[in-house]
Amino acid sequence: MENEENILISSTSKEGVLRLIMNEQNSKNSLSEEMMNKLSKEINKGSREQSVKVIIIAAKGNVFSAGHNLKEITDARKQSNNGESYFQKLFDQCSSLMECIVNCSKPVIAEISGTATAAGCQLVATCDLAYASSSAKFATPGVNLGLFCSTPMVALTRAVKNKHAMEMLLTGDFIEPEKAKEIGLINNFFENNKLEKETMKVAIKIANKTPGEIATLILPGGKPLIDSKLICRYFADKKNRLYDIELYPPGMDLWPVLNLEALADGIMDAAILLVYEKNT
Questions:
Q1: How far apart are CA 266 and CA 280, in angstroms?
Q2: 173 and 137 in contact (C-beta within 8 Å)?
Q3: Predicted structure pTM score
Q4: How confident is the model at residue 241 (pLDDT cuts 50, 70, 90)?
Q5: Out of 209-223, 240-254, 262-276, least confident range
Q6: How far apart are CA 99 and CA 211, in angstroms?
Q7: C-alpha gyration radius of the chain
Q8: DSSP states of 93-153
Q9: Residues 13-26, mean pLDDT to the nearest whole number
Q10: CB 51 within 8 A of CB 16
Q11: What pLDDT shows up at residue 87?
Q12: Of 33, 5, 90, 122, which Cα lies nearest the Cα of 21?
């Protein structure tokens, strides 16, 4: 049952699709402390529940998310230390939410019905899949305010090629859904009145799959293992052999991944290990 007064509306379909709808339109669905807490809590809960197969993050109104809550940030600057401790906590909380999505055992889909800027764009880039309305727009506009969207940059550069990401980060310009699809920020876009239906269609299709029908390597928990960094992290944790220089500092007793052949060997070893573990 949906409660329209909640800033985050949660409902689960009979097919096992958990819809999380941001509903704080007076703040443009900003990623306030409360919103991030609620999103993290619901995603973690959905990740653990066997009845949940797919998670969708959507929003009410014509703004998907404007990023961090400017009122909270302005108030924090009035503190004695100019808000330094608050900002550290805020960015840690935001990073925790993004990691929560990345590490979620269920596919997480962004359903973008409007504008997504700054950390809101980061949220889109972090999700496994993203579908937008034809009126959606995307931007990392920090540079226009004398800032640089350094934290959104992490997710953005993982989702799209570096030059496309840097163009967004350095210009602060909005891009239309056509461009967002072209560079890989979103999977597809639809007319506004068809977005929810089309996104649900994809989610239900995924929910109806069984692990045996998905021809990909699966992490314990269910999410397809398609990110080399996840492969490295998983295998390193398991066997203390695989080393990704972007994940682990020099000096750790791990085997360096220096070329694609080595990575392919590591993936094959990881696949064999997972099959063995699932059958013992």
A1: 21
A2: no
A3: 0.75
A4: very low
A5: 240-254
A6: 23
A7: 19
A8: HHHHHHHHHHH-SS-EEEEE-SEEETHHHHHHHHSSEEEEETT-EEE-GGGGGT---HHHH
A9: 96
A10: yes
A11: 72
A12: 5
Those residues whose C-beta lies under 8 Å from the C-beta of residue 196, and which sit 6 or more positions away, are: 58, 111, 113
Residue whose pair of structure tokens reads 């590591």 in the numeric block: 266
| Residue 65 near residue 113 (C-beta atoms within 8 A) | no
* Distance between CA atoms of residues 14 and 118, nearest Å: 34
**Bridge partners, residue 138, by sequence:** 116, 175
**Closest among 16, 17, 52, 22 to 36, alpha carbons compared:** 22
237: exposed, middle or buried (Cβ count in 10 Å: 0-12, 13-18, 19+): exposed
CA distance 81 to 196: 44
CA distances from 210 to 53, 70, 88, 223 (A): 10, 43, 41, 12
User: For residue 251, is it left (φ>0), alpha (ψ between -120 and 50) or beta?
Assistant: left
Q: Nearest-CA neighbor of 69 among 108, 118, 104?
A: 118
Per-residue confidence (pLDDT) for residue 207, from 0 to 100:
92
Across 235-260, average pLDDT:
40
Residues 127-157 pLDDT 10s: 999 999 999 999 998 877 766 667 788 889 8
CA 115, 110, 123, 18 torsion-angle sign: positive
137-139 sheet: strands from edge to edge: 63-65, 115-117, 137-139
Query: Judging by DSSP bridges, how do beta strands 8-12 and 17-22 pair with one another?
Result: antiparallel
d(CA 208, CA 204): 6
